[in-house]
Amino acid sequence: MSDKEKVVLAAGDFSKALRGEIKLPVGEVLQRSWEITLRALPIMLAGLILLILVNAVATAILENWFPVDETDPEPFNVVISYFISIVVVAPFSGILIYLGILNAGDIKPGFADFGRALSRAPQVILTTLYPAVLMGIVVVLALLLGAISPALSMAVIVAVGIYIQLSFILAVPLVLDRNMVPHRACLASILIINKQMLPVFAVYMILLLIVIISMLPLFLGLIFTLPMTFNVTGVIYNTLIGVQQDRLTAAGNDADDDV
User: Fold this and answer.
1) Which residue from 131, 41, 97 is spatially nearest to 238, judged by alpha carbons?
2) Residue 73: φ, ψ to 5°
3) Which residue ranges traverse the bilayer (predicted)?
4) 21 Cβ partners below 8 Å, 6+ apart?
5) Lower CB count within 10 Å: N or C terminus of the chain?
6) pLDDT 10s per residue in the chain (259 long)?
């Protein structure tokens, strides 16, 4: 694809995003995400491999410490394993999210950015726990509702789960890029996404379809589509809010040092 054909999305504005004044074009977001994935694939794969390794180690340890019997799971072990895995994995997911933010801002990320993202690990963990706790509450309430109608209970879990996941997608980027405290980042994400829920939902439904299709030829397509999922978050963030220029400059300087 030539430079003339490449999608260019202007950086957003935080105040305008809060007021719902910025349009989120679904097709352009996906195309832009694909373009920057091809450009930054090596470092994205490095971050993805690190995330997979950390998740595998955490899973093995948790299965040993808090075993879960699939036929008769112990609720305590399930809950503890769930939240510990979030605490362990969240900072490394944050690395990929931060790389996606830099990619969306047309800044070449470097390995120094891994450390920059990890330096915000406590804030990223707390930010990730907010929707996890909310989802846990929803599941408990839905299970109680299941005594009346199992089908309705499942529908509530799915619908509310999707809403919670989408509403919080900008929270971690706000923590990483703007150093927002977790509760403010979560609130800002909810306010902004609620004004863009339909296009955001469309983006992620199409992305889900792309990921599923990419699994068909021996899962090889996931090499591209899994990194793309984090770049999608970065593109949405940059389109609605805009990556802070001072952070982009610092990231660019570090990336040059890594070369």
Assistant:
1) 97
2) -65, 140
3) 40-62, 82-104, 124-148, 154-176, 197-224
4) none
5) C
6) 444 456 667 788 999 999 999 999 999 999 999 999 999 999 999 999 999 999 999 989 988 888 777 766 677 777 888 889 999 999 999 999 999 999 999 989 999 999 999 999 999 999 999 999 999 898 888 878 877 788 888 898 999 999 999 999 999 999 999 999 999 999 999 999 999 999 999 999 999 999 999 998 888 999 999 999 999 999 999 999 999 866 545 545 554 444 3
pTM above 0.70, yes or no: yes
Q: Which amino acid is at 153?
A: S
Burial string for 159-173 (b: 16+ CB within 10 Å, else e) reads ebbebbebbbbbbbb
3-state secondary structure of 235: helix
| Contact (CB, 8 A) for 138 and 157 | yes
Report the interhelical angle of 197-214 vs 150-167 (nearest 10°).
100
DSSP assignment of 146-157: HTT-HHHHHHHH
| Secondary structure of residue 24 in the 3-state scheme | coil
DSSP string over 173-233: HHHHHH---HHHHHHHHHHHHHTSHHHHHHHHHHHHHHHHHHTTTTTTTHHHHHHHHHHHH
User: Tokens for 188?
Assistant: 């800002």
